[in-house]
Amino acid sequence: MSNLPQPTAVPQADHRPLGQMHKGYSGHVFHIAAADHSASLPAAEMERRLIELGFVEGAKVTILHEGLFGRDPIAVRVNGTTVALRRREAMAILVS
Length: 96
Hints:
Blueprint: E1 16-17, E2 26-32, H1 43-52, E3 60-66, E4 74-78, E5 81-85, H2 87-90, E6 93-95
Antiparallel strand pairs: 1-6, 2-3, 2-6, 3-4, 4-5
């Protein structure tokens, strides 16, 4: 038996996709995790576009509005700029 400390994993519950959050949520971007199946764009292109819109690690985000049907799209304030996103695009943005 080893007396070395075991590494601890960061709980996934602390980081959730922005697309699962509701109107009024405020938090910070933890990571962009675009996947090829998450939207009509390839993952690399989706990640690039989200970063260009201001969704960078540490950016403050607030959901301002949800669409009437299916709560889609959502209006998100990111570092003082308001952006409209589809929920499937927002699923690529992990927040805490």
